[in-house]
Amino acid sequence: EVQMVESGGGLVQPGGSLRLSCAASGFTVSTNYMNWVRQAPGKGLEWVSVIYGGGTTYYSDSVKGRFTISRDNSKNTVYLQMNSLRTEDTAVYYCTRRPFFDLWGRGTLVTVSS
Amino acid sequence: DIQMTQSPSTLSASVGDRVTITCRASQSISSWLAWYQQKPGKAPKLLIYKASSLESGVPSRFSGSGSGTEFTLTISSLQPDDFATYYCQQYHTYATFGQGTKVEIK
After folding, report:
1. What is the pLDDT of residue A98?
2. Chain A interface, mutation test: which of B56, B71, B89, most A Cβ atoms within 10 Å?
3. Distance (Å, rounded) from C-alpha A107 to C-alpha A100?
4. Which residue out of A100, A103, A104 would a mutagenesis test of the B interface target, given it has the greatest number of B Cβ atoms within 10 Å?
């Protein structure tokens, strides 16, 4: 079955760090554009980051310098390292693939609060 | 950065109505546009890609059109399962979503 499963979310204090994982099955992450998209409570969708097949990465201005996307081809898994977290980073984080997002995980909730 | 503007923000309609949602890009994105449907507590679902290509398994009452900076999503005959929030997304340069259109029961 083709799917992605996110994990690693939770409650963290402002200024803290968290690493999200996205484990894929049924396809190969290294040959796809892999993205993270987030959705704050009651708000719309916001693209966060992408890692291309060749390894090039890009970030939204709101997370640039604080978040890092990476992947482990041997585990077929994509990661999002989130540092210097702010309350406005509170959201459900989704893993998606391709430039148009045909497959989504269920998401993992990140709550940044003191 | 490319900005995406959807209208309306909310749309009240009845079962059987023809519904049209508009999305405007701040610069030309050719046909690099997708549409999604999202229901509460669920991940978005891809409906349309490349402005007018219907994703496999999506009912034919959904259609997309446009190119450049102006795009539309049309639901030809609204069904009970279609009450949801709809988003457009450009993928010409990274990705940007519109702010969403909530389709609610009239």
Report:
1. 87
2. B89
3. 17
4. A100
